[in-house]
């Protein structure tokens, strides 16, 4: 994920030095990093930032990561999935230590965002680590005590791959107006009704909102997943401009 931050009449976003202050293990391959970023200007749920690493020989690698939670002063959170043979994600997940610096630039993006003043129903559809910016929206909704009804449909390989598993269970139980549903593609939990499958028209019809309610739909995940879900939603009758998408590729 990423976006240009330069252009005619646009001031480039500055690079800021961020330092790791805490981390949480979400799955064996995904960690949430809590960073302190002096001067961070704040962000909206759904935005992302660029992370830049610089090697001793001067080589630089930059990747974009979604912000996983609302900002708390200068503290921000990223949830990073380790990508095999990646240049950035293995370092962030396996090596990056408290106090170590990285450079960050952001926030980036203004279309794939949810604002607390928005009142229409919301459908969130995430595939794998595409849940991350959607989780920021769930957290922002709770922080703002919003009454906008939310539904989350999360497509994931196995129960062991579920990000924020304990928090999702707690939110599904305690957050009024929130429904959470899963589609497992490789292995379902014991007692699960149905067989593992890729997200389908039935999933979207069952767990989404009727188009006549005018919901906002946010879809995030790998490109093929996003295109499939967006087509299903438009085919169901949702207006294209109310289906907002964010996709990511294999870089890490």
Strand order of the largest sheet: 4-3-6-1-2-5
Oligomer: single chain
Order of helices and strands: EEEEEHEEHEHEHEHE
Secondary structure class reads alpha/beta
Outline the low-pLDDT stretches. 1-7
What is the number of beta strands? 11
Strand content: 25-35%
Write down the CATH class of the largest domain: Alpha Beta
Cofactor: FAD
Domain FAD-binding FR-type: 13-114
GO molecular function, one term: oxidoreductase activity
Protein name: Ferredoxin-NADP reductase
Describe, in plain words, how this protein is organized in 3D.
The protein has 252 residues and is α/β, with parallel strands linked by helices. The chain folds into two domains: 16-108, Translation factors (Elongation Factor Tu (Ef-tu), domain 3); 122-248, 3-Layer(aba) Sandwich (Rossmann fold), CATH 3.40.50. Helix content is 20%, strand content 32%. The chain contains five helices and eleven strands; from the N terminus they run βββββαββαβαβαβαβ. It is globular, with a radius of gyration of 18 Å. Residues 1-7 have low confidence and may be disordered. Residues 13-114 form the FAD-binding FR-type domain.
